[in-house]
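Q: For a teaching handout, I want to show students what a protein-ligand complex looks like in token form. Below are the inputs, and the small molecule is zinc ion. Please produce the holo structure.
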Amino acid sequence: MLAAADINPANVAGAWFMQDRDFGAQYLKRLDLRWLNVGRATSQGQKRLIAGVESTTSLFRICAHCGQLDKAAGRNTREEHRSWCSHRKAATEDVREIALARTLHTQGVLLHLPPQLEYDHFAHPSLSAAVLLGLREVIGGSPEHLDVATVRDALQAPDRRALLIHDTVPGGTGYLAEFAHPDRVWSVLAKAWEVLRTCPCREEERLACHRCLLPFASPTELDKVSRTSALKALSDILGVGSHHQPEFTDWEITDVPPHRCPRATSPSCRRISTPASSNGCGSTEPRSPRNRASTAPERASPCQARRPACGR
Ligand SMILES: [Zn+2]
Ligand SMILES: [Zn+2]
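A: Here is the structure, written as tokens, with zinc ion included.
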């Protein structure tokens, strides 16, 4: 199952970024979120690029006339059709390959994440569950009207994944508008950090437990949810070591999207922490939403080449 977010930059109703690390959020007053079931992963078959993810999947083969699932390729049998289908007795099969899709028009908050998370197989499933855990702590109950999807970060870094906190109610409830403010996101992350830091499963031989992340894990990712991975990601974002408490005053916030080195996913080529006012670009004005979308690596601005952290 793939999640794909269709985001119009004009629907970004609020945005903030951290000056000294790759993290930030954009509140989306409207977005279309699609879940695509593309069938089972297989080693054979055609490679497809869907929502920025290349995969080889079988899709679903169905009769082109009645929609019944085809059981075997290359032959036609009565059992592969509905009772009324005119192709039940055909000598050859006539099939179509399809994906199953569900679309939700709603509201959301896109969380841009540090590039190093791409190197941890457990990071995104674990942080996704941690965000829901933090929401439960802040709301004071199960966040039933909210969920988190992992999507490509099309607005800021198409080569990375982002977390999309979204309303599960069609059209949205307006609740997530609060997350246009960084203190609200900080509270969710700090609450999750506190639960994870003290959860008794840290002394048990298990990745996570029912007291922390497992209630918020996707059923297909229960073996990819790790308290340690989530705690490390949260500590990096919150800027705390294992023995310090997170402080909101540690966050330096700007409304200017960060410049990105075209090879920013390489640990040796990470962006340095330089606000726009001193990076030689000559502008301190917040960028328009459309300009934010143009910060993709393949459209690197000339001033990126002068940045010493990139060095290339
Ligand atoms: Zn048929
Ligand atoms: Zn636990």
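A: Two things your students might notice: Confidence is low (pLDDT under 50) at residues 264-312. The pocket of zinc ion (ligand 1) is lined by residues 63, 65-66, 68, 81, 85, 87 (CB under 6 Å).
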